[in-house]
Amino acid sequence: MRRTRTARMISRALALTVAFAVVLLGAVGTALPAHAEPPTDRGAPALPSRAAVKVDGVSVATADTAKRPAGPRSTMSNGDAPVMKLDAGSLGSAVRMVDAGHQPYAGCTPYISGYVSKSGLMVRIDYLAEIVCNFYLAGAGQAYVIERTSGSPYNGQVIAAATPFSFYNGYYGYSLGAVLIDGKVYDGGAVMEIGFDLGLQTLNGATWAGCFTLPPGHRYLTPCFGVGTTYVSVGVGTGGFGTGLAPGRLDLLASWTQTSESSSQAFHTARQNQAAYAVYEFDWSNDLCTWAPDNPLGFSFERSCIRHDFGYRNYKAAQRFPENKDRLDSAFYEDLKRVCAGYDAVLQPPCYALALLYYEATRIFGFQKVTPEQIAAVAETMPDAPAGKAPAA
Questions:
Q1: Cα→Cα distances 273→42, 184, 312, 377, Å
Q2: What would the 3-class secondary structure string for the chain be?
Q3: In whole angstroms, what is the distance from residue 293 CA to residue 152 CA?
Q4: In Å, what is the CA distance from 132 to each residue of 139, 208, 284?
Q5: How far is it, in rounded angstroms, from Cα 346 to Cα 215?
Q6: Which one, of 321, 326, 325, lies nearest residue 56 by Cα?
Q7: Residues forming beta bridges with residue 179, ordered by sequence position
Q8: Are 218 and 198 in contact (CB under 8 A)?
Q9: Is-contact 225 234, C-beta < 8 A?
């Protein structure tokens, strides 16, 4: 009986170990998306499809056909120094060359190009990735766009991916795409990178010698998998490039709309120097206290209303208003109370009463909808002869 129980325990432990190993290997595999599967049954390699993260302010655009290549690059663009080279010792007569004269230099070279256009805070990136070889083989690839803006919550993530390509018994392929970035809405977009996943398989047994120096403006994103075999896969990128958007726009907006006095002061200082922040294209317009007096009973509420308008208008433009409304209203109330604190003690009670009226109006209606009757009721509490300075009634 004891031996049977012991055997069962060992069997269960082994089963758990095997299951854990399978899960671990699966996790490692998905961490290397550039590593594709070799072709089977005379087909092209199957690359793991790049799935772009879905975020507000980023949308796929129709690729510009003018940027689509009219035909393959000349295979002579590889010259005698292809980037992804075959092992010359494995060639023999197995490799069918596009140009027989270059047999000792059999290999492939990736090319990535991008075009950035900007109108206001709307950025468009057209991107193209190509692979050109000087011999016939099977291949697959996909281009994509990676966020590289420091501080962006999406830094390092793929925000757009083009349609993959594949070929068999060919020597050229390309992946073309376009993406639109709304700088008012998307949190990032200042620095981007175009990536290119590749999988290449020889057809007649020739092996790959490795991946070597890339064309200018390109870099490797992953190791070169499969060196010494008939199948190689790799990720290539352009390195980060600027789009013309300024980084940290939403962070700056948040810093100017907090409840603290320092936040309020920073906003009003920036408002007096709007040219210094022109690149962010904030909406500085306002209609002061909207449906209420700007300076009720002489109390100076207009500056508080200006900051409140700024927060409302820019968070609506950023499509983040609902989740920030309560804070914007609370900041407005704190601004009003700081105004009241600056008056003599005898004037503070009616001022605080008005501040509460204005705050409740914004909290409920979204704007300062205060009636003349409400203000008249507060006016009855105003002192007849207040000590010190008093607002003009």
A1: 66, 20, 20, 39
A2: CHHHHHHHHHHHHHHHHHHHHHHHHHHHHHCCCCCCECCCCCCCCECCCCCCCCCCCEEEECCCHHHCCCCCCCHHHHCCCCCEEECHHHCCCCCCECCHHHHHHCEEEEEEEEEEEEECCEEEEEEEEEEEEEEEEEEEEEEEEEECCCCCCCCCCEEEECCCEEEEEEEEEEEEEEEEEECCCCCCCCEEEEEEEEEEECCCCCCEEEECCCCCCCEECCCCECCCCCEEEEEEECCCEECCCCCCHHHHHHHCCCCCHHHHHHHHHHHCCHHHHHHHCCCCCCCCCCCCCCCHHHCCCHHHHHHHHHHHHHHHHCCCCCCCHHHHHHHHHHHHHHHHHCCCHHHHHHHHHHHHHHHHHHHHHCCCCCCHHHHHHHHCCCCCCCCCCCCCC
A3: 41
A4: 10, 16, 51
A5: 76
A6: 321
A7: 60, 125
A8: no
A9: yes
**pLDDT tens per residue across span 171-202:** 999 999 999 999 999 999 999 999 999 999 99
* pLDDT of 14: 36
Report how far residue 380's alpha carbon sits from residue 236's, in angstroms, rounded to the nearest whole number: 74
Residue type, 114: G
* Dist CA 56 CA 79 (whole Å): 44
Which token pair is 358?
């204005």
Token pair recorded at residue 375: 């203000």
| Token pair in block for residue 81 | 């120094």
pLDDT band at residue 85 using 50, 70 and 90 as cut-offs? very high
Among 5-14, 91-100, 180-189, whose mean pLDDT is lowest? 5-14
Least-confidence region, from 3-17, 244-258, 288-302, 362-376: 3-17
Task: Please report where in the chains the tokens 């590593």 appear, as a residue.
Answer: 35
Q: What mean pLDDT is predicted for residues 315-342? A: 96
Provide the annotated active-site residues.
308
Which pair of tokens denotes residue 196? 């290119």
Structure tokens at 245: 């958007």
pLDDT of residue 31: 32
Structure tokens that stand for 172 in this block: 């050229």
Cα Rg of the chain, angstroms: 32
d(CA 159, CA 149): 12
Paired with 194 in beta bridges are 145
